[in-house]
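The pair is quoted verbatim as follows:
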Amino acid sequence: MALNELGLAHDVWPGIARGVAVTRSATALLGERPTVRQHYESFTIAAAPRPPSRIILVDDVITKGRTLLAAAARLRDAFPDADVRAFAMVRSMGFLTRLGRLLAPCEGVVYWTGRDARREP
């Protein structure tokens, strides 16, 4: 909503929400973080005023990309003709010796490897 108020978004539609809570990745142990499937199954899609042709997901932090991948898949199932993309304010990258790299803007991709989400870079 803030992006719309600042004039940085044409339309804002809070169309995806958690129907079922999942463990927060930030507080989960490494082997207990939610899977892409768990994220996917937890999301619900709200009715859209009109079928969107372009959807930009906005998230605060991306780590592996499981949440964004699941959200994008859920939206693609609901709106198969929409161009779905994502934006995250910060990308976490594990232990870093240079903090500047954590905040450096980048463009990348999140994809399904057959077993898990993978983010590059």
